[in-house]
Amino acid sequence: MEVSFAREISKLKLSEGEIFHGEGILAVTKALLQSGVSYVGGYQGAPVSHLIDVMVQAEPELADLGVHVEPCANEAAAAALLGASIMYPVRGAVTWKSIVGTNVAADALSNLASPGVCGGALIVVGEDYGEGSSVIQERTHAYAMKSTLWLMDPRPNLETIVDSVEAAFELSEASNTPVMLQLRIRACHVQGSFRAKDNAAADISIRSRLAEPAPHQYDQLAHPPATFAQERLKSGERLPAARQFIRQRRLNENFTGTQQNVGIITQGGLYNTLIRALTEIGFAGFDGGSEVPILSLNVVYPLVPEEILEFADGKDAVLILEEGQPEFIENEISAILRRAGCETILAGKDLLPMAGEYSAETVAAGLGKFLRRHLPDRCGELMDRSFAAEIDTLRQKAAELLPEPVPARPPGFCTGCPERPFFAALKLTEREIGKVHYSADIGCHAFATFAPFHFGNSILGYGMSLASNASVASFQEKRPLAVMGDGGFWHNGLLSGVASRLLNEGDGVLVIMKNGYTSATGTQEVISTPARSRRSQAAEASATHSERTIEDVLKAVGVKWLRTVHTYHVARMRDTLLDAFRTKEPGLKVIVAEGECQLERQRRIRPLRAGELAAGRRVVRTRFGIDEETCTGDHSCIRLSGCPTLTVRQSSDPLKSDPVAHVTNGCVGCGMCGEVAHAATLCPSFWRADIVSNPSRLDRLRAGLRRHLTGAGIA
Amino acid sequence: MNGKPPLRILIAALGGEGGGVLMNWIVEAARQAGFSVQATSVPGVAQRTGSTSYYIEIAEQEAVFSLVPVPGRVDLLISSELVETARALVAGFVSPAITTVISSTARSFTTAEKSAMGDGRYQTEGIIQAAGKLARTAVFLDLTELAESNRTFVSATLFGAVSASNVLPWEIETSRQQLATASSLRGFDAAATAVREELPARESETASIALPGTQFSALPEDLQMTLSLGQARCTEFQDAAYGEQFLDRAARLTEAADPDDHGSSHALNEAFRRLALWMAYEDVARVAFLKTRTERFESIRQETRLEPGQTITVTEYMKPRIEELADILPTALGARLMRLAGRGGFPGLHIRSNGVIGYWLLRTVAGLRVFRRRSLRYRREQAEIDEWLLFMEEGLRSSAGFAAALAELPRVLKGYSDTHARGRRAYRRIMDEIVRPAARNGFTRPDTERLRSSIDAALSDDGHTRLDSVLGAAQC
């Protein structure tokens, strides 16, 4: 990737006592180095992509510390990486986006958790739940419980997050169990500060290698009969050890309050929202001081029964604040209280919504119900209802003043994205053969599910599109279409999709978007990413053009019908698609839709052009435009494109009432407009301007001819 | 509630336009000014042009900061786009008790708005008014335009506007120091000045246009304006006689209308506009003419920001079909051409309109207008215009409401090639299945409603799915 993280990397080198200012996920990275890790790895995905990006770019600095960096091909590989800590006393950490990444990692996680670890093993998961999430909504908590892994959910300030990372390694070692640490989206991106410590170098690392491998110890293999003993160890030894460590180190925090008869037990990650909600209803201050006692669980699995019982002791009722479903923590606390014969009333999902993100507004409403019931003498002071009424009034007034619903603005393809012209070609294909069953996938191409394209009948996971229509193919007259990116292809699609279809001699059409990177997660590299030399050779052209790893692999596994088409050749792409749907040839048809990610291309082009311009060399800039005189305001072009720079504006012609199409200055001259205008026989309104800076003598000669021999006025 | 609340700032923005940069500037400035600060966001895939937000809290002492904005509890709303401001208003983030709104008036249209076949734009007039009522203070400026004219990004002008608004608890110089480039400083300063001066709204330029002949002097001025624009358009399209023909047709409509009825005058204005646009229909000669006008090249010079010393070539993407060339030729010749070529088209042509060959080729095609009056398409268009005018006259005499709707019917005749063919199909169906029967019925109110809904339907999707359902329903 071309983005530079130099500033972030400098923050990783801060030493004892210096103040770190920065993003949450970068603070985690610094904490890993302070903890003396020997290896780090993971698979990219919001909201933890930056951890990987920074690590990859900081590889030289990390090598000085002895840290091995391994960006993995998928989360299963990342989880398996932690296997190093089973037999060796080395600390390691991996990261991914959850729930999806944890799903992929699940097999390796089970096999890791069963034998347990002797070196601290940490999994940092970005809990992609609630506003801003891009995946299905589920909780990571379930994995901790079923595999007996510990789960931390620290209060979302950098001090606590960093302390938790450091404590997680110790907890892992004290209980021979891998630890997961979950950070919600906003916590990953939170900008804050903490006092740094020196980085620590590990005893065993790439700089200090072992001469001999670990001895063969059958007990440590995830293989029967050892697994039966391991299963007993999990609850028999590791769990008590973990509880003891959590209690001794006070990883959970008890905030006392003046209202002794009630209390709130919260996931640490929700603590700040809870305080703000309490402030709004009049029971806490902005400084954090709360009248209601709070037990903040920075470790949400396992719970320590003694801590829960001590907190509940003498209280009439406790409220559990737990985001997402089902209510794992509440159920566990219920069992703890019941077993101990504790009479304290338990409240939680009966007062708060079962599903969805807990905003301050939601929490305030739940708190109001709880406190009204259990602090009846203070009902008069509770401001929950006035707060809710105030918000309602604001929304009502706004709705009266703005009766038309505000149009939604989902994300979409970037300006110049090479995937957009493919979807234009697909629309044109459907004009000829009608709709086809479309299996969508995870990646930028999933933006084609939104306007103006509206493609997709199902999404079954990353790299799963082809696999997901194997049975659809059996009962559809027309061949179904699966689209996946090169990211999805390497993550899973090659095996689950292509190999499986070939094994079954199945039919179908697969389109692989070869843009060279896992673009949706921030353009990280995959195995088919064009090498740096190839990229500098390509200069302004698409660097994926000559990279043929995907095609070579497809041929090697036995794909017979294989075409690579540059996405900007819209008409050719349409014809290739038509051919794939109509050919009598049986078997899987694969079209590799090639076009380098425009984000990466532009990042390469910009400095290149600036350098050429500064040196006084000839540089051509291309942009598109639309003649408003010939535009009839039908906007067919927009319905085939959706480019952010292709928009509308009021016509300056007073006779025209409908807005005309217009290209803004953001245009990068990708050429799609013209290609689509041709392929779709759209309209003659598009023009392309090629502007030459530092023109050559030939340019100037030609311009002179144009000036003298035409009436155009610009040359 | 104990303690002083932090300064709570919500930034509403579009992914990829620098909201994160603005957030980081504010955070850095706050740190330098000695404040405790926290900021966060939900970038994820919203980075890719979707609507997104950033949230900052700034306090004098350490505090437990919230990671999410709370409705009714935002001190400062910064917005880079007008509809995003509306989104924040509707979500209840703006309160008359505390909120200062600083918003750009620029619009970045959502895909749904801009892909509508007619005008799908959100009505924005209400947003500024609503913010005025719902906020404590609201400042609206076109900060996007200000950024473009200073060759910088909207984050810089937003930062300038915010820093000059006396909401941030530090000197403007502390903000200014965060900027590294000359262009962002220029944008920052320009926005700061604009906020201080609260620039009076720019007056819209209304060109002075000669009014048409005295025969229309009884009409309201805006109608006369439309008439003279229409006359000019038709004269430019063909010749002075064609311009006169436009006025004659307009006179027929004027006679049929009730001069005192407001509804009729609205219908007339719409009819004049549609008539002019229709009469100046886009055939290849017209397109070639428009493509080679000096004014057009001048606007390309401005749009491309062509600088002295640079050279430029302008390439046209044209793909005329054989029919379209046949359209402009004399009927017999056109028919022969069609027989020779069959149905099909030229390969996509790239014509360099400011090149020697391309320019003169286009001028030659533009010159084909001498044949226009004898062409197949001319005859067809005139016959259809006359048919429409006939119904317009009848409508104006008996039902201003129906006439107003009918005046809009030519809107469905849009685009070129396939798009145009689809539009014509829709037009014919509506004419035959709604307008003709309505004329027999005497233009009842249900007729008007059916006509309006069928025009809307024809403009709602390419495949005419809605039109089919509306017309199907209309028949039974």
Written account of the structure:
The complex is a heterodimer of chains A (about 725) and B (about 475). Chain A has about 725 residues and is of the alpha/beta class. Chain A has four domains: about 15-195 and about 215-245, Rossmann fold (3-Layer(aba) Sandwich); about 255-400, Rossmann fold (3-Layer(aba) Sandwich); about 420-600, Thiamin diphosphate (ThDP)-binding fold, Pyr/PP domains (Rossmann fold), CATH 3.40.50.970; about 620-710, Alpha-Beta Plaits (2-Layer Sandwich). Chain A has a seven-stranded mixed sheet, sandwiched between helices. In chain A, strands 16-15-17-18-22-21 form a six-stranded parallel sheet, with helices on both faces. Chain A has a five-stranded mixed sheet with strand order 9-11-10-13-14, with helices on both faces. In chain A, a hairpin with a 5-residue loop joins β19 and β20 (about 525). In chain A, α2 crosses α3 (about 50-55), α9 packs across α11 and α17 (about 420-435) crosses α23 (about 570-580). The longest helix of chain A is centred in the first third of the chain and has 23 residues, at about 225-250. The model of chain A has no long low-confidence stretch (mean pLDDT about 95). Chain B has about 475 residues and is α/β, with parallel strands linked by helices. Chain B folds into three domains: about 5-195, Pyruvate-ferredoxin oxidoreductase, PFOR, domain III (Pyruvate-ferredoxin Oxidoreductase, domain 3, 3-Layer(aba) Sandwich), CATH 3.40.920; about 215-285 and about 375-475, no CATH class; about 285-370, no CATH class. Chain B is about 55% helix and about 10% strand. Chain B is built from 22 helices and eight strands. Chain B has helices at about 20-30, 80-90, 110-115, 125-135, 145-150, 155-165, 170-175, 180-195, 220-235, 240-255, 260-280, 285-290, 295-305, 320-330, 330-340, 355-365, 370, 375-400, 400-410, 415-440, 445-460, 465-475, and strands at about 5-15, 35-40, 50-60, 75-80, 100-105, 135-140, 310-320, 350. In chain B, the strands form two sheets. Chain B has a six-stranded mixed sheet with strand order 2-3-1-4-5-6, with helices on both faces. Chain B has a two-stranded antiparallel ribbon with strand order 7-8. In chain B, α9 (about 220-235) packs parallel to α11 (about 260-280), α10 (about 240-255) runs antiparallel to α11 and α20 (about 415-440) runs antiparallel to α21. Mean pLDDT of chain B is about 90; it is low at about 200-210. At the A-B interface, α10, α12, α16, α25 and β24 of A face α1, β2, β3, α2 and α3 of B.
